[in-house]
Automatic annotation (TrEMBL):
Protein name per Swiss-Prot or TrEMBL: Methyltransferase type 11 domain-containing protein
Superkingdom per UniProt: Eukaryota
Entry keywords, A to Z: Membrane, Transmembrane, Transmembrane helix
Transmembrane region(s): 7-29
CDD domains reported for this sequence: AdoMet_MTases (cd02440)
Residue span(s) of domain Methyltransferase type: 77-174
Amino acid sequence: MTEASILFFRTCLALLAMPIYLLSFLGIWEPFCKKIFFPFFLEKLSAIHNRKTKKQKQELFRNLPDFAGPSGELKLLEIGTGCGANFQFYPPGCKVTCTDINPNFQQGLSRSMSQNQHIHYERFLVAAGEDLHQVPSGSVDAVVCTLVLCSVQSVNSTLKEVMRVLKPGGIFYFLEHVADDHSSWRYFWQQVCYPTWKLVFAGCCLTREIWKNLEQANFSELKLQHISVPLPGTPIKPHIIGYAVK
């Protein structure tokens, strides 16, 4: 009965979103989404999300200076930088390498960089989380990934790259929306929305249980917490937040 209900509501939602499905079929939606819609949407969402999670992020990144190298220099790699929503939480003098698979965030990124001149921006790489070959192994003190693992092609491959680029004892920070409890109504609606949501929001997957990938990634230490972020009208309230040490 549940599977039939999910299929029924998925079909209804697809019918409502039929213009987008048609544009996708014609090869128009994906480039429009990548270049115009998603950068605009993500900048708006990031501002709201930052307001809702400001205290949690401040606490999350509080120990970031502790992972600086012997010279006091802190080298940080951010996967899926987007519009630079995390810059305000990084300590002064931090050397940041930004990566994103989508190079079309320039406007939002420039605004964020101009507002956060307390950190040093080393370079911007157009790269997927699963392939960071431009970053040498064991070269960074910290890796940050927020609202990104929902849309990478492979969570496990991305975490392998995180482990590779981190120095021994380096730290990986994460904040991701995840699947809700399978017995909940929200999980039911996550399953209903899954195909249309993934199409509209550039490959974002609603039902990933990312905490399981993290638990299996062979970090020496993992601190992970399930939290709820109040985002009314969306199926992305359940989140995980925490850090892992190589």
